Amino acid sequence: MTALRVAGLAAVCLAVTPAFALEQGEHRFNGFGTVGFTHLSGEDDGRSYGIQGQTNDSWRGDQLSKFGAQLSYGITDTLGVTVQATAKAQQDEWKANLEWAYLSLQANDQLMLRAGRLRSPVYMYSESLDVGYSYPWLRLPDEVYSQVQVTNYEGVDAVYTVPLSYGSVTFQVAGGQAKNRDYYAYDEQFDIDYGNLFGASVSLATNDFGMLRIGYVEADITTDISGTVDVGGGTMRTLSLLDLDKEKGKFTSIGYQYDNGTWVSSNEWTSRMIENDDMEAIDSFYLMGGRRFGDFLPHVTYAQLDDNGGRQSSWTLGLNYQAAPTVVVKGEYKRVDTKNGYDGVFTRSAQEVFDNAVGIAPARNYDGDIVSVGVDFVF
After folding, report:
1. Lesser CB count within 10 Å: N end or C end of the chain?
2. Which residues form the signal peptide (predicted)?
3. Considering the entire predicted model, what is its pTM?
């Protein structure tokens, strides 16, 4: 068995747990992690970048590095329990996180029911979000994967798989809530609630032509994002920058993956909208292609984020090396640009938002060069 297939099996055990039912008393333990460092150049004012602003002009490991373990145990031949925990940085502080904790019932060969803490079925890589080995990049495309920060919920789901002569099709329906989660905006952390969460997806996996996934998630969002700013003359005032009270948020995604052992492609398009926030939908996508040469995989990705007249776009060049059956060394260079006075995934403070809004300082474009190096592993 090739190193690629061995490592792929380990990643599948973590990423597609519903496909593997355990017999009574049987258990499965897997570990995974990333050790990575990233650096931003081009922005000379100490600007930070990323979903939690952890990428800046210092070489830092907290944006990319993370460690986790997953344990599954068969209570009976049809009833099992799965727990997944991670350790990763939240802004400047490392925290332990319980990502998964659920009971699963294998109703029959095709249907699995789960209840507990589950992954939100938002993205194509949601099930394996922390398992860096399961995707070709060291850092997932920020233009898409910065759109929804809440990664799990408490509730139930049903996964139904139909085998086909040329592959399989899987349907997933999910419902629940995610309360008291952290949301990063304007260099601060805020509380956010997702109520009445509903999600559905369908995935068509073929033997020869890759996998196509279509997903939809909606929830009632409650949050109050505010900041204390100088409104003039040294007068400090707390202003609400976004106030949502059970407003419906909707997220649609379409993804496609292909990997025949030589050629690799991964692509995803998303659209996010929130009712009554006086904003248009935010659309984003990425297109990735690569080719293996023995143990090496060079790849290129173009990504784009369109937000109410503003745009962020980027090109990423990457090179992966299969150092061992379950270890991949990765290096990436990413060039990021914004236009039309848009901050994109760059971080602005509440004061900058206020100054831009009232014309004290005009909104400007941002650009930067991001270099990332690291190792993804599973066991």
Report:
1. N
2. 1-21
3. 0.93
